Amino acid sequence: VQLQASGGGLVQPGDSLRLSCAASGFTFDYYTIGWLRQAPGKEHQGVSCISRSDGRTTYADSVKGRFTFSRDSAKNTVYLQMNSMKPEDTAVYYCAVTLGSSCPQSLYEYSRWGRGTQVTVSS
Questions:
Q1: Cβ-based neighbour number of residue 96 at 10 Å
Q2: Alpha-carbon gap, residue 108 to 118, rounded angstroms
Q3: 64-89: b or e for each residue (b if 16 or more CB lie within 10 Å)?
Q4: d(CA 80, CA 67)
C-alpha cells in the first residue's frame, strides 16, 4: 500500500506546475484525500482536501483561486494543479489519505502519507 507524489520541480514566480499522486494497493475512492506541504523551517500545512462523503474540495486560504485539486478514478491518481505560483509556495508537497468521511480538522488524522515531492518557486 503506497502513495507516491511526483511532479515537483523548480519554477519561476507566476509559473504553473501539476503534481500527481498515485495510489497502489488501495483505491482512492474509499478515502478522503489531502494535499499537504511543509515549507523549510515550518510545520506541515493542509493545502487542499477532497471529502470522501460528498466530493467537496476545500483549499487553504493561501492557495484559493490558484490551486485546483482533481482526481482520475480510472487511473487511481489525484492531481494538484498549481497556477500563479509564489515563492511562499516553496515546500515539500505530500498526498495523504484518511478513512474519515470528511476533511480532517487535524493533519494527524491522515493515516497514510506518501513520500513528498519538492516544489521550489524562485526567480
A1: 24
A2: 21
A3: eeebebebeeeebbbbbebeebeeeb
A4: 7
pLDDT above 80 for 63: yes
Banded pLDDT at 77 (limits 50, 70, 90): very high
Strands 44-50 and 57-59: antiparallel
Determine the Cα–Cα distance for residues 39 and 67; give it in Å rounded to an integer: 17
Strand partners, 117: 93
Copy the grid coordinates of residue 55. Answer: 466530493
Q: Which of 8, 10, 16, 6 is nearest to 85 (CA)?
A: 16
Q: Which three cell numbers stand for residue 83?
A: 497556477
